[in-house]
Structures
1.
Amino acid sequence: MFTTTNPATEQTLATYEFLTDAQLEATLEAAARAQRSWRDEPVAERSALLRSIAARLRDDREPLAQLITQEMGKPIREARSEVEKSAVTLDYYADNGADILAFEQIPTQAQCSGVRFDPLGVVLAIMPWNYPLWQFFRFAAPALIAGNAALLKHAANVAGCAERIMAVLADAGVPEGLVGNLMIDTPTIERVIADRRVAAVTLTGSTRVGAIVAAQAGSVLKKQVLELGGSDPFIVLADADLEAAATVAVKARFTASGQSCVNAKRFIVVDKVADEFVRLFVDRASELVVGDPTDETTDVGPLARADLRDAVADQVRLSIEAGAEVALGGEPLPGPGYFYRPTILDRVPRTAPAACEETFGPAAAVIRVADEDEAIQVANDTDYGLGASLWTQDRSRAEILTSRIEAGAVFVNAQVASDARLPFGGIKRSGYGRELSGYGLREFANIKTIWID
């Protein structure tokens, strides 16, 4: 049984029962049956359905945003943006899916040769709580336009969001069974992955869980896309626009209360400008409003669970013991709710937890370096490789340095973010495969060679 809790009040919201074996079997069979019909629908019909889902999301924006805020504590303004971003992504694939899936002719000695993109079948999506709508729809939009079916295994603490997603899909006219909601416990996931009706698996989550799912899927030779943790560097060179960098740094670190894989985590700053950057960073972060996430003025809400707040507190404490200096915050807020003060640690040793672990909460680590070469070395000295942000006013230098940074995405003078038009994913222990854009759509397609003579 799942129990959901409001992280701002610590009050129980609802309980949800696990699927019985019979219900699970019915859900798997319904998805396989629905997909066999869906794959034969013209792309134009699939596009129309995605537009219908997007419209339904926009119609239900306020109750959906309120539910996100209740279940995982996201400030209401950010929750509304999440709903809209999900709708925008559905629109993108509705508008572009036909072109991405079009037959790709490749000249050979054959009369006709090339590549077509067929659906794989039923795809299991194991999704996290930090973006309970967006994480699902950024997978589902390309998966559905490609002709696949989807099974959602959502995080337990956003079980209500999972149910509401199913209601949105039903209202939008999604064929019965094409998308299923799996309220199952963790041991049952392996059984679902192994089921012959499941063709592939996608997971967004921690590196530890990703390794487990990869092993389970690999043992039965199922395709996987894994978007895992990150310890994204935010590199500030000596010629950076410090005012702009500090302003974006606050958003890049504290959006979603610091609970995003692509939040900037390590602020790697050249010594020459470090004092000024830290001053500006602290000044702007000090203006953040922490509190009730349903309040329109709140910038930073609670962490989603008590254990997450405690983990951030431990990382900060151990980093201070290792020599880091507290420039701002550094402690939980008293009272109910899983709140932690926005925190900036300066002069963080490279071996401190805040510098070498993924920090999933509102705490930033400033690491000072001598020059740009050391900055790149420190940026790459991590097991992760999801995103990176580079700040310099020298365009030519930026283009050279982007090739040296080990990450799935490098944003120059901007915050790392996902965008439906661009591929998203990481390297190293941040996972493999790509979501979004045409690359993400084709991850769950059979890239089939055609030769006609």
2.
Amino acid sequence: MKVAVIGSSHGGFEAVRGVLKDFPDADIEWYEKGDFVSFLSCGIELYLQNVVKNVNSVSYATPEGMEKLGVNVHINTEITDVDSEAHTLTALNVNDGKESTEKYDKLILSVGANPFQLPVPGKELGNIYAMRGRDWAIKLKEAEVTPGINNVTVVGCGYIGIEAAESFAKAGKNVTLVDTGKSILPTYLDPEFTKILEAEFKKHGVKLALNQSVKEYVGDDDENVSSVISTNGDQWDADLIIETAGIRPATDWLKGKVDLNEKGMIKTDEYQRTNQPDIFAIGDSTEVTFAPTGKKQIIALATNARRQGRSAAMNLNDEKRKTTEVSGSSGLHVFDYKFASTGFKDVTAEKAGVDVESVFVVDTAVPPFVHDDKLNAEVYFKLTFDPKTREVEGAQIMSKRDVTANINTISLAIQQHMTVDDLAYADFFFQPSFDRPWNIMNIAAQKAQDKLDHK
């Protein structure tokens, strides 16, 4: 059996691993448009902040290593067409422009997504960067030390924008973070958390330009960007723009080949199958099932892509594994604060038209008698639940101490349809240098019980 995998990031890599495991005799053809296999854009921040020294190490695999495992790796090879009836692919060598026709028995599409470029005047100017892929990582690293790049504007305040803003602030640049929303990280955190993080950004010199968007990029005589004009009339200097205003599925070439939805996402079933026989799709160009609602939506996370990749590989011949529903669990840091969230927040539930209630708890990480600022930082925790069924629907946690692993427990609680009553007295260990006798999840769930029982 010849299995073709298009794309080499999280999903594509996991699919190849899965095929190697489940079909050791398969002929695996792995296609990558770029000249580097399985670069992980989630590691760019670590590279920019010198935690990771070598950009080439931000990868799952090398062509040489995968070839030794029996995988036929094709770098600098763009797949431009697929014929599902003939089971063939059109492969373009990006170096010499030559095309070839390649056969497959099973095809796994892990085509990913592209950064969205703002359609504003001046978008063609120089020094307007994205933050996705190895090439951009190298350019961004160079920009950190380039004379003349002092004022940096980051467009978009999701995870990638937050990472870019912090990285360039730590590099000594004057950073402005602009977004249409009224707060940073609106998809991930409620205001109780974002207010603290916004103050943290301001403390480190990052200027926040919220409730506005970019109206125009203005250039200088060198044809590079020199300033930004916003939709509310503000203008500020900018030697570098980093656009992190979302992504779009890289599926234009698949129109008419497999079914796409109105957003260009590839439609798949619970086994990652498309509407075409023997073609599967995974990763950022597909939707995943959100556990709190049971409905599919866009949740572009590496963990989801890898989970889908494993499912696609297992299901090549038979229906062996449905892809697990997810809660959208994720985490990040903003300078000293570490945070994570999962499931519904008040802000996302309101947008989805879902009725939820929440409780907010502030506690210390360990008992008060532990007089150590690093050990005993404040912990902020918010638990969200369904007021009718009492089921846990989401949570958010933040502290200067890393307590983010609690969110994994909440994610499991959501998937298993646990109630606040289940969580209120759930068994968690206690040791004074690690935790409190009542874990903060217990405390929040008990508070939720009181709220529901005394309506």
